[in-house]
Automatic annotation (TrEMBL):
It comes from Adlercreutzia caecimuris B7. Transmembrane segments: none annotated. GO terms for molecular function: DNA binding. Signal peptide: none annotated. The lineage of its organism: Bacteria, Bacillati, Actinomycetota, Coriobacteriia, Eggerthellales. Pfam families: BTAD. One of its GO terms (biological process) is regulation of DNA-templated transcription. Residues 707-851 form the Bacterial transcriptional activator domain. PANTHER family: TRANSCRIPTIONAL REGULATOR REDD-RELATED. This is Bacterial transcriptional activator domain-containing protein.
Length: 859
């Protein structure tokens, strides 16, 4: 016998390998293992899911670690004894009363060893020795060979509400991994475990790609591995790695939010093998492939951070020259500057283009000196293309002094006049030249006398200004400049009339339509979109006077948050200063989004939604103006969210509830506008913290709202199941029913199938509760209360025989024998007239008892 098995005996002590600084009990999972004691149990999940701690808790709970062996299957000694076939005999030698054997961290076994291990597990189970084995999905080669084995996978090991303190459980199921919730270094532990797991290189590459991207689609894996291998990897990872958040129906994924630096450090040693496995050659090529996917999904900052952290310097320079302008459009100015610092000593094939884009990036960050310096490099370069010189001059023109602007106009004006002469009456050339010409013309018109006219004319003719095109960002930036230029002259309502008013209103509608469509598609606003939203918000009162829409609160918050992030990245504003800066919202005070979430929650007044008798809303005890809730759709949306009591509803489900016959695209756009409208209705101090919406779901924040639906369900629960105070304080409960819930649920919201269903269900539940309370009160010697509740039940539903029976019983208990007879005849008439039926035999027997009893008995 070897000392390996002897040293594996627990002898009443927890193994040293599973000692945790903080222990979290999981009784529900232990009960799952205990229910299946006659089966071999395999805990198959990635590192970080708490497999070892669960096995240890089971061993301690069931056996106190007595007659338990904890076999370290990762040890070479395990493989040696498995090959020799001596493990079972050695276990019996050490402890004749062995009750449980835990095989911890079973490695990847070849076919022959997997069969031996399955046979070993079978022999132990036949000898009435329980077996628990822990392994990772990549190493699970034996569970399928053990007859009737129970496999507990990662989805069953995710932390649920019963195991986590209230309010600390992440909303995303993918983030409910034990190590992410309970371990300080959980993200690193999870990422490193995935990086070192025994997986094929292409599968590891797919896992790395999904963690890096954070969210995406099945097509991203297909682009990385090819169609067939991508589909295989998708199926394999979806079943075994729940922290990737794979949705098979939607073919999308939303992984647990791991810091990009953590993922990069964990997989650093595996980059070259992964690149070769997917056919990219080197790690730089693999990184750029993934960065391009991130960039196309609107994740420019994350794409740039990935390239800067992983790719070689030469690759960084090449990728910056190819994709830098798109990063500038997406507002990733800080990342552009950092990539330039990484690649500045490398040979840049697109040196002039890179200098121009870096100038624009510094301008976005508010660092004028650096922006002017890089712009001068391009303008003064003899070999630089003319269009790049004009782009750099435009950047300097927006940032410089009067003298700088004059000198930059010497570059821009001749180019613009030459284009006009070449183009004739039209505007020929590529879209980027058209866009540059528009920006130059708007910038030269600093007083705003022609800017709005230019924008409207160009946007009306341009087919390249769609919401999801690259040029859309430049168009939005031109609109922002035009609006600001026009506002610089002052825009009182009396001055906004005629053609000029139409132009401003047109630009506002066009820009908001573009940014709303981008939001519906789940894309960021981009730099141009952010500037347009803020510019329109600054003139919000004028837009309202023109009958044009003003930006919704959610859009303004998103734009402000993006600006704050850029300021922080550039070091131009301290975090505490940024949090305190007021933001103009067209005369409305507003907090910057994403700066200080905790004080916002503490200071937010409670939203109260009342649905019985009509849809009404109160914020901090003050009723929201009925005029604001005049929109039927807004009332219906608020009612649906309140009825689900803070539970998340998929956007598609809400669209189907509100517009059951609309096509998907129309429904999404209508829903987004409706959501923004409800946000503005429920805004408190310029912001709306009550409505929570992400890419997959919508809900009311349960910590910030209450409703009479909650009170109703509490009252029904008391009526149905009783309470200690029911027999002594039934008058108060009856008063609640008669006052608060006397009206129907949302009576004006007719035609909505979901609300109609809730209305019918609540009505039935209330009658059930009233009948049950009447029966209980009569049994408790409260005949008056029993009478009142039974009569209230009949008032709400005159077709319920159980309500008639409850009222007859209550009348008998109160000595109202003639009343009981009248109640029976009323029931008989109603059933005959409405349904053509006779009363049931039970009700008939009760009637016979009433007429046959002598009056003295009831005295």
């Amino acid at each position: 016998m070897t000392r390996f098995v002897y040293q594996s005996a627990c002898r009443g002590q927890r193994p040293a390998r599973v000692q945790a600084p903080r222990y979290h009990s999981r009784p529900a999972r232990v009960a799952l293992l205990a229910r299946e004691r006659r089966r071999a149990r395999f805990l198959v999940a990635p590192h970080g899911f708490g497999k070892a701690m669960l096995a240890a808790e089971y061993a301690e709970t069931m056996f106190g670690f007595r007659h338990v062996f904890w076999i370290n299957a990762a040890s070479p000694c395990f493989l040696r004894d498995l090959d020799e076939g001596s493990l079972a005999a050695n276990l019996e030698t050490v402890d004749e009363k062995t009750a449980l054997v835990v095989f911890a961290d079973v490695p990847l076994l070849d076919e022959e060893r997997a069969e031996r291990f399955a046979a070993l597990v079978g022999n132990l189970m036949a000898a009435h020795i329980e077996v628990v084995a822990t392994t990772t999905p990549g190493c699970d080669s034996a569970s399928g060979l053990v007859p009737d084995a129970l496999v507990v996978d990662g989805s069953l090991l995710l932390v649920d509400e019963g195991e986590c303190a209230a309010g600390s459980l992440p909303e995303e199921p993918a983030a409910r991994v034990a190590c992410l919730i309970w371990a300080a270094d959980g993200p690193s532990f999870l990422a490193e475990g995935c990086a070192h797991e025994e997986l094929p290189a292409d599968l590891r590459a797919a896992l790395w790609a999904m963690l890096v991207m954070g969210r995406g689609q099945k097509g991203d894996l297909r682009a990385l591995l090819g169609a067939d291998r991508g589909d295989e990897a998708w199926a394999c990872l979806g079943a075994a790695y729940p922290f990737l958040g794979i949705d098979e129906d939607e073919e999308t994924f939303r992984a647990a939010p791991l810091d990009l630096g953590v993922v990069v450090r964990a997989f650093a040693g595996a980059m070259e093998p992964m690149a070769r496995a997917v056919g990219c050659g080197r790690r730089g090529d693999l990184t750029c492939l993934l960065a391009d996917r991130l960039l196309s999904a609107g994740e420019g900052p994350r794409a740039a951070s990935l390239v800067g952290a992983v790719a070689p310097r030469a690759t960084v320079g090449a990728w910056l020259g190819r994709c830098g302008w798109e990063l500038v459009r997406q507002g990733a100015a800080g990342e552009v500057c950092r990539l330039y610092e990484v690649a500045c000593r490398a040979k840049l094939a697109e040196r002039f283009s890179v200098n121009a884009m870096v100038a624009c990036a510094y301008a976005q960050l508010g660092r004028r000196a650096q922006a002017l310096d890089f712009a001068r490099k391009v303008v003064s370069a003899t070999l630089a293309p003319t269009s790049l010189k004009v782009a750099a001059a435009l950047c300097a023109h927006r940032q410089g002094t009067a003298e700088v602007r004059r000198r930059m106009e010497e570059v821009m004006v001749p180019w613009l006049e030459a284009r006009r002469g070449d183009a004739g009456a039209g505007h020929k050339g590529c879209p980027s030249d058209e866009l540059l010409a528009l920006l130059v013309e708007v910038s030269l018109d600093r007083e705003g006398s022609r800017a709005s006219t230019l924008c409207r004319r160009r946007l009306g003719d341009a087919s390249w200004a769609g919401a999801l095109t690259e040029e859309a960002q430049g168009c939005l930036l031109a609109v922002a400049w035009a609006i600001d230029a026009r506002a610089s002259r002052g825009m009182p309502e009396s001055a906004c009339s005629g053609e000029e008013a139409d132009e401003v209103a047109y630009l506002a509608r066009w820009a908001l339509g573009i940014v709303e469509e981008r939001a519906v598609e789940g894309r960021s606003l981009g730099f141009g979109g952010e500037e347009a939203v803020l510019a329109l918000d600054r003139v919000g009162s004028w837009l309202e006077a023109l009958g044009a829409p003003r930006p919704a609160v959610g859009l303004v918050e998103e734009a402000c948050a993006a600006r704050v992030r850029r300021e922080r990245a550039a070091g131009t504003a301290r975090a505490e200063d940024a949090a305190a800066l007021p933001v103009s919202t067209g005369g409305r005070p507003m907090r910057r989004a994403g700066v200080s979430a905790a004080p916002l929650v503490r200071a937010t007044p409670l939203l109260e939604v009342r649905l019985f008798g009509g849809v009404r809303a109160f914020i901090g005890g003050r009723e929201v103006s009925p005029r604001l809730l005049a929109s039927r759709r807004s009332r219906a949306l608020l009612a649906l969210l309140a009825l689900h009591r803070g539970c998340e509803l998929a956007r598609e489900d809400l669209v189907a509830m509100l517009w059951p016959h609309a096509d998907a695209r129309t429904g999404r756009k209508s829903f987004y506008r409706l959501w923004q409208n409800l946000q503005s209705i429920l805004s408190a101090d310029g912001a709306c913290p009550y409505l929570v919406r992400d890419r997959y779901g919508c809900r009311l924040d349960p910590a910030l709202f209450t409703s009479d639906v909650m009170e109703f369900q509490d009252v029904v629960r008391q009526l149905l199941f009783g309470s200690a105070a029911l027999t002594t304080n039934w008058e108060r409960l009856f008063e609640q029913v008669r006052t608060m819930f006397s009206g129907e649920l949302a009576p004006s919201e007719t035609g909505n199938e979901v609300i109609d269903g809730f209305r019918e269900r609540f009505s039935l539940e209330l009658v059930d509760g009233l009948v049950a309370a009447s029966v209980r009160l009569r049994a408790a010697g409260e005949p008056q209360g029993a009478l009142w509740f039974a009569r209230a039940a009949l008032e709400r539903d005159a077709s319920r025989e159980d309500a008639y029976a409850a009222l007859m019983e209550a009348q008998l208990g109160a000595g109202q024998r003639s009343g009981a007879v009248a109640t029976y005849h009323a029931c008989r008439r109603h059933l005959a007239d409405s349904l053509g039926l006779d009363p049931s035999r039970q009700l008939g027997a009760l009637y016979q008892r009433v007429i046959e009893e002598e009056p003295g008995v009831l005295a």
